[in-house]
């Protein structure tokens, strides 16, 4: 049995949809471009980004991408 260290984030910290949105953010897409690509409203994108920021403890899009990459939640 492998034990995680206390600093390792759980792989399920972000939902699949949150990871998907964050991957689009990492491609420098706007909220509207993300909404169009995923077939969701811009309000849903904004809500998902708020949750992502909250879960990762950041306040900016760039900070969210950097934190997610650092934690191994999304690929570079």
UniProtKB/TrEMBL annotation:
Q: Which InterPro entries match?
A: Sig_transdc_resp-reg_C-effctor (IPR016032), Tscrpt_reg_LuxR_C (IPR000792), WH-like_DNA-bd_sf (IPR036388)
Q: Which residues form the HTH luxR-type domain?
A: 7-72
Q: Which UniProt keywords apply?
A: DNA-binding, Transcription, Transcription regulation
Q: Which domain of life is it from?
A: Bacteria
**Gene3D superfamilies reported for this sequence:** Winged helix-like DNA-binding domain superfamily/Winged helix DNA-binding domain (1.10.10.10)
- Name this polypeptide is given: LuxR C-terminal-related transcriptional regulator
Q: Which organism is it from?
A: Pendulispora rubella
């Amino acid at each position: 049995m492998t034990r995680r260290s206390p600093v390792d984030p759980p792989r399920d910290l972000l939902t699949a949809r949150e990871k998907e949105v964050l991957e689009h953010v990492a491609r420098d897409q706007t909220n509207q471009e993300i909404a169009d690509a995923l077939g969701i409203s811009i309000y849903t994108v904004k809500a998902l980004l708020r949750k992502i920021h909250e879960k990762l403890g950041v306040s900016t899009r760039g900070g969210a991408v950097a934190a997610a990459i650092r934690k191994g939640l999304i690929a570079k």
